[in-house]
Amino acid sequence: MAPVEPTGTEPVSASAAPLTVEVAVSIAPRLVQRVRLQVPAGSTVRDALLACGLMTQVPGLTPEAVTAGQWAVGVWGRKERLGHPLRDQDRIELVRPLVVDPKEARRLRYQDHLKKWPKGSQRIKDGAKGKKMAPSSGA
Predict the structure, then answer these.
(1) CA neighbours closer than 13 Å in the CB half-sphere of residue 60
(2) Which stretches does DSSP call E strand in the chain?
């Protein structure tokens, strides 16, 4: 009989080495806080979030807010549930909720840009008032 290869789904023993994971949370635009920690083998995303200590440092980040879906949780950029089992060197990412809809923010920036230019100024080329100029062909 041939030896059976391990599939990676066997139960983890209590004597297994601890896992090293990193928890990253964006607390403001372009500001990321990271915590590296060791958790016991067989730990879940929830276990690491509670052990990292960021829940007390980041306003609005509570276990209830994460469970309610106000914060998105992922492992290496992939959305995962709180019960997801961790592997060694995993990176858990907490994404804060959006304050403004990106489409609305772009529309507002465009409207603000239009206010800076006098009306119709972008149509006038080479001092030809009232006359539209055809684009020159570079031939």
Answers:
(1) 14
(2) 19-28, 31-39, 72-75, 78-79, 91-95
Which of 50-54, 116-120, 127-131 is predicted least confidently? 127-131
Q: Write down how long the chain is.
A: 139
Whole-number Cα distances in Å, 131 to 20, 118, 126, 134: 69, 18, 10, 10
More confident of the two residues 134 and 79: 79
For residue range 21-61, what is the model confidence (pLDDT) as tens digits?
999 998 877 888 899 999 999 999 999 999 998 888 888 88
Asked if residues 65 and 71 have their Cβ atoms less than 8 Å apart, the reply is: yes
Q: Are 75 and 84 in contact (CB under 8 A)?
A: yes
Which CA distances in Å does 53 have to 6, 33, 61, 111? 35, 11, 11, 42
The rounded distance, in Å, linking the Cα atoms of 78 and 75 is 5
d(CA 33, CA 97) in angstroms, rounded, equals 16
- pTM comes to 0.61
